[in-house]
Amino acid sequence: MKQISIDQDVFDFLVSRANAPGEPPAVVLRRELRVPLAQKTLDIDEDTYAFIAARTAVIGESVSDILRRELQLAGGTAPTPGPPGPPSPPTPSPSTVVFHIPSGTGGGPWNDGSGRVVAKVGDTLRIINDDSVPHRLHTSGRPFPHPEADIFPAGSGDFVLRTPFDPSADGPLFDHGQGPQAVFFLEVTPTA
User: Which phi and psi (to 5°) does residue 179 adopt?
Assistant: First the structure.
């Protein structure tokens, strides 16, 4: 452990941000600075993994945060949204297009060419995972940036469609973890 000297106003701020009376200011500082805790690796069975994944409250929530909440440990409260990002540029009448990954999909196709999802640039694609395993689309940056996190069972992900995309010319998208056999047909047309 190291010691640092801080001004009274910084100390008062840290005390005011405590989650519980008596929470040490050093713990508050670590949380406020979002310093990650040292990670440990556990080997768990598929059922336990699915149980944890199903309890994800927000996309990108860490496993440790889920476990703290489920085990009722200190700091295991419902996640709060972070600070707002920069405002998005206005888009003309966007809509949300919803697609459900069917139960039992596993490593198979999400849909087929005749059941392709059709949307337009500026729309939001909401993918809801009705399957029992996590899924993540693999994109090359089109029609939206490659997702950073899986969509866990019973979870969803929202993706703003930024560019046109034609699966006939560009090829279908596919599941990042399952490979090219797990195709997803999405057509994104230019905004009229």
Answer: 95, 180
Q: Name the DSSP letter for residue 18.
A: -
Q: Closest by alpha carbon to 162, among 142, 148, 138?
A: 142
DSSP state of 60: T
DSSP helix/strand/coil, 31: helix
Per-residue pLDDT of 121-153, as tens digits, reads 999 999 999 999 999 999 988 999 999 899 999
| Pairwise CA distance, residues 188 & 172, whole Å | 12
Instruction: Please tell me whether the overall predicted TM-score, pTM, comes out greater than 0.90 for this model.
Output: no
> Pick from 51, 53, 47: which is nearest to 129 by CA?
53
7-23 pLDDT, tens digit each: 999 999 898 988 888 88
Task: Identify whether 36 is preceded by a cis peptide bond (ω within 30 of 0).
Answer: no
Distances (CA, A) of 88 to 9, 145, 190: 35, 15, 18
Q: Report phi then psi at 187, rounded to 5.
A: -115, 125
| Three-point CA angle 56, 59, 64, nearest 5° | 50
Token look-up 């029992």 returns 132
